[in-house]
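User: Okay, second chain of the day. Same drill as before: sequence in, structure tokens out.
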Amino acid sequence: MTMERTLYSVSDLISKTRAMLELSFKDIWLEGEVSNVHYHSSGHLYFTIKDNLSELKGVMFKSSNSYLRFQIENGMRLACFGSLSVYEQRGQVQFVTKRIEISGVGTLHQAFEALKNKLEKDGFFDHKHKLELKEIPQKVGILTSGEGAAIEDVLHVLSRRSPFLEVVFRPSKVQGEGAADDLSNGLNELSSVRGIDTIIICRGGGSIEDLWAFNEEKLAQTIFNCKVPIISAVGHETDFTISDFVADLRAATPTEAAEIVCLSLEQIFSSFENYETAFTNKVESLSLLNKNKIDNLFNRLMRLEPSNRIKTKKIALENFNNFLLNYIENTIDRRKIKFESMSNQLISISPDNVLSRGFSIAIDKKSNKIIRSANDLSIDDNFILKTSGGSLEAKKIKQIN
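Assistant: Same drill. Structure tokens below.
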């Protein structure tokens, strides 16, 4: 009996395999550690997910990746939701991911912690980047919803505490899709207003989902790059957002932000009184200092009175004259002693003195030059021997070594 043979092409087999895998392993959760993480310029995310025994290629296309709220990094343990499929051109099994969570942690919480750690590592929270608030601002910008209680609370406090303060309000979405973009644009607009001293970015309380726009990286970047001091007041006292960490100052509530940004009239008057006291003390201190300077100048003028100056110069001249005479006499004496010493040395080493001590000088009779070595003469050469008592003519008979 002959068995019927089914012959598949490579493409057919891979296509059928893909269909079977996608049908059998659709919308499942896959857990493992990721490596080889690569964010492609196209917006797609590629990675490898593995356990102790096996590994599998993973992909998250741009359409899904745009909703990812944290940065995937090598070594993370993740739970991925998606379907098993095959990349047909290579016959490669891969997991097409639609959603990613850090294992064991809620998605929003893990996204918050991941972004917080990233920004902290990049220096976004460093105190050296914080701007100082102006003590008595003239113009304040407010960025919040135009419909919530936050704007009413802030305006009430500002009008009560500092009625002469100029307020620039820019309404913005504070939750939902596009809120982070609207808030970022609003910050840029307010910071470009001439004379703005401080900006308050705020909203009332809510769930983590409601406050999420203030945890977006784009808004954090805008706050960090803003050249105007920013006070962040988002939610209630127990609520903390990424914006709170990046801003120059955090207020527990919008009301507190308004109280911080401007002094009350009583505080302003108190500040003026302190300035007045400090100014008075400074004037008195300068007055005393100038009086001391005048007294010193008077004493100097008294010392510089003409008759006193003549006496002083006369005494100085006499002292200098005596010094000069003593200096000349001492110099002459030192030179005299030195001359006598050198003269005695010259006398002691003069040729006549040397000859008187029993020495003699041999002179070549032909060249009339002093003979310095026995080798300068040959046998039977005549030479003159000069002594202290006279000169003798001699001849070299032999050389004695």
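The mean pLDDT is 84.

User: Thanks, on to the next one.
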